[in-house]
Amino acid sequence: MAATLMDGRALAARVRAEVAEDVAALGELALATVLVGDDPASEAYIRHKHAACREVGIEAVDHRLPADAAQEDVVRLVRRLNDDAGVDGVLVQTPLPEQLDEPAVLGEVAPIKDVDGLHPFNAGLLFLGRPAHVGATPLGIMRLLAEYSIRLRGVRAVVIGRSPIVGKPMAMLLLAEHATVTVCHSRTQDLARHTLDADVLVAAVGVTALIAPDMVKQGATVIDVGITRTDAGLVGDVDPGVAESAGYLTPVPGGVGPMTVASLLQNTIKAARYRRGELAFPAG
Ligand code: NAD
Asked: Which protein residues touch ligand 1 with a CB less than 6 Å away?
């Protein structure tokens, strides 16, 4: 039987409607984005994020620096946004150009405004099982899993990819829901040995058709995070033939992507609540 497609577009529209209600209740709020350079994929992501903010009534402020910006210039801008009382959330679009020390820049974002959850303080809280700000992609995936009532407690979950923005936080969130989590990556040997064991499989790599049909257990839930731009459009990490054996599958496009943007809006609401004292931001 063919897999149930997990409709991220429809759920994201509902999340955005919830966010619009929150915005109406909270009053003005703003997300500042920082884009260094002119990478077309990053520009496209920033455009989507801004459009989504506008749609729900969040002010999105677009800060741009040239590709050859110096570390001090980027840090100065981030500090200015940290100090700006009119800014609720700060997002530095990654990857940054090579000459910049990316961890150092991300470490400058005020933790309370760190909507991507990439500051060591927020990453550490997630690691300790006390999450505050958590990245939008893994959060969006968790919401999608909940929406389709996918069981996580006690099941085997395999995450492919170990980046700070997707793979690692994803593994932490699944662990917090009591899944037994395996993290695979570029040096993993015999990937299929691990994936075949997965009740829940999350592929966050960026390699087209990495997950072939014979690598997936019958009835598994498969979350395709990967995005590769091809002439035929956006393509994920999962071979379309997987739909024949999986129980649930996220389409690309229309699965994780819309949920990422919707969750970023929710994170901006959360940042506004922290700053207004409606939610207590952890002291450490
Ligand atoms: P990344 O390049 O930082 O990480 C990729 C990971 O894949 C690494 O941890 C690496 O070890 C692993 N990897 C590489 N080759 C592998 C292989 N052959 N087998 C197993 N593992 C391998 O990328 P990222 O930022 O984590 O993003 C991953 C993918 O997800 C990209 O395609 C990106 O465009 C996409 N993405 C999508 C969304 C969304 O909203 N849909 C959000 C973020 C990222």
From this structure: 137, 160-163, 165-167, 184-186, 188, 191, 204-207, 210, 225-227, 256-257, 260
Query: Per-residue pLDDT for the chain (284 aa), expressed as one digit of tens each?
Result: 799 999 999 999 999 999 999 999 999 999 999 999 999 999 999 999 999 999 999 999 999 999 999 999 999 999 999 999 999 999 999 999 999 999 999 999 999 999 999 999 999 999 999 999 999 999 999 999 999 999 999 999 999 999 999 999 999 999 999 999 999 999 999 999 999 999 999 999 999 999 999 999 999 999 999 999 999 999 999 999 999 999 999 999 999 999 999 999 999 999 999 999 999 999 97
Coil/strand/helix, residue 225? coil
Q: Residue 94 C-alpha to ligand 1 middle, in angstroms?
A: 13
For residue 187, give every residue at least 6 positions away whose Cβ sits within 8 Å of its Cβ, in sequence order, or none.
none
- pTM of the shown model: 0.98
* Beta strands at 233-235 and 59-65: parallel, antiparallel or unpaired: unpaired
- Does the annotation mark 224 as catalytic? no
Can you tell me the distance from the alpha carbon of 30 to that of 53, in angstroms, rounded to the nearest whole number? 9
